[in-house]
Amino acid sequence: GAQVVMLIDSSGSMDRPYVTGNRGTSRAAVWGTYRSKGQIARELLAEYAARRPRDMNALFMFSSHPIPVLPLTDKPAAIQAAIEAGTYERGLASTDLGAGLIQALEFFKDQPFSGSRIVLLVSDGSAVLTIPVQDHIRNLLEKYRVTLYWLYMRDQHSPGLQPGRNGEIAPEQQVHAFFSSMGLPYRAYPAEDPTALKRAIAEVDRLQNLPIRYSDVLPRVDLSGGCYLVALVALALTLGARVVEVEL
Q1: In what order do the strands lie in the sheet with 56-62?
Q2: Which of 19, 100, 151, 242 is 20 to 30 A from 223, comparing alpha carbons?
Q3: Cβ-count burial of 8 within 10 angstroms (0-12 exposed, 13-18 middle, 19+ buried)?
Q4: What's the pTM value of the predicted model, to 2 decimals?
Q5: What sign does the dihedral 17-18-21-26 (CA atoms) show?
């Protein structure tokens, strides 16, 4: 198992269809006539969480502002409800990846280190990280001993994570270059269609399958029956003593 924070990009670009593998989409895709990248990603993440009942999962969303949805928990019903809650509304225009990642990492604050820790970033990565933000992210990843996985949902207007021959570097390529240069556990999975995303999630499932320790609050045990029995026995002894009592 693992302690997993799902960090999901809820910006407007995640409302678009996949670059490939989304049949029935016209040139000018109309919202509601196709399943968006974000919707399919949430469906597959829900399946991932359902397969791993021993995980502790948290959910964080981000667009122009980070939005905490669910703290770390091992309650399957709460996890599934949190994932499903974001499948209906459309995203916002901007993407603040830095703030979202920083606050998602803070979910591990004051949490006992009981096993593997990962942040599962689901985003098309069209964002810019300043130097102070990069330093903060690197420090938190190292402090909380977190592995970062990026499920990269490439937008149709993006060149991908690898720089092209023209020398121009897209924002997502800069983000990927920073993550790769941190010297910390990190891996990116390009997912241009639902099948690629499913393979990437399956790979994370395979890699993060170590023992995990966690504590839980057990429901109270009803002891009233035993107490009543003890009281009944004591009462019977008292009555018996009363019956055999001899007055002089």
Answers
A1: 66-73, 56-62, 3-9, 117-123, 147-152, 186-190
A2: 242
A3: buried
A4: 0.76
A5: positive
